[in-house]
Each structure stands twice: as C-alpha cells, then as structure tokens.
Amino acid sequence: MAAMAATSFAAAADDPVSANTHAPAYTADGKLILPADYREWVYLSSGLDMSYNPKAMASPSPMFDNTFVNPESYRAFVRTGSWPDKTVIVLEVRGSTGNGSINQRGHYQSGGVQGMEVHVKDTVRFQGGWAFFSFDDSAAPAKQIPVAEACYSCHSAHAAVDTTFVQFYPTLLPIARQHATLSAAYLEDTAELLESPAK
C-alpha cells in the first residue's frame, strides 16, 4: 500500500497538470478568477513602454509591464521548452516616475497596478488552447476577451513558443532554442529582421 502511494506521488510530481496547485480557477459563468498570489510566482521579465502597434502613441511617462507565470508551468518549460496545459501567465502594468528619493536619471515603477492581462492555457475549455482575460484595474473576475480581438491573431502570428512571447523573456528564450520549440513564425520574423537594412 505504501509503495502504491509513493508511486502515485512520484507520478503526480512528474505530471505538471496533476501537480499544478496554481491552475486557473473560474466562476460558474466562466469568468477567470485573478490569482491572488501571482506576485509570489516566477518572475519572467519587465518591459518598458512596449507596444506591438507601430502607430501607438508614447505615454507622457513610460509604462512598465511585469510578467509572472505559475511555478509548475515554469518548471515544465525549463524541462521541455513548452508550456503545459493549465499554464497561467500574468502581465501587470504600472506607471513610472523619475522624480523621487535620490534618483537622478532614468525611471522606476511607481503607484498601483493600472491594468492587468492574463493568458491562460486550458485546452479543454478554450478553442485553440489559449485565452486572454483583461482585469483592467479591478480584481473582480473577468470575462474572456473575444477571440476576434487582435491579441489572438498577433500572438498566433508572432509568438516564439506556443502563442506566447517568449522572445521577450531572456531567461526562457535560450531554453526554447535548446529544445528546438521556437515557432516557424518567430524564426521567420527573426530572419526578416536580420535581413532588413539598419534604420
């Protein structure tokens, strides 16, 4: 009996879905519940005033985005170069300032969260496997962003790994290269960038 229990525990430890204590949670009507402890998850990277739209206007003060992923999915990615089912990636947006304390140059993050987006892999629930949810400045459960919105097609057309922008996560991109899990679309984008004349 003890041997069977140990075997079951070992199997669960090897299965990131079974062992995922941070899997996405939903309300009865299908809204995503914001993970309360996401800031205790694995930090992936921060971007400064990033936009995927060439016509986007720069904000008066640069905006930071911080990206976190549930630890079980991070460990699975390190092992395989791919995201397992029930991956949850949280991106929070914060404002910035350059005036404060002893700072003389550059910007640092300031104030509360001004917006939040969550990218969820749930292959049973969502067509295509992934879905986006926007929490704006509220922690109330959020409805799925409609699949017709541009975020889906943009991620599908340009993401480095499994519709996620691993190309902006410097600790994960080398792992994806090592496991040869980079998407054909991303490799094509990279080749075109290298071939383009310097501007």
TrEMBL record:
Superkingdom in the source lineage: Bacteria
Q: Which InterPro entries match?
A: Cytochrome_P460 (IPR032033), Cytochrome_P460_sp (IPR038142)
Domain Cytochrome P460: residue ranges: 35-165
Could you tell me which Pfam families the record lists for this protein?
A: Cytochrome_P460
Annotated protein name in UniProt? Cytochrome P460
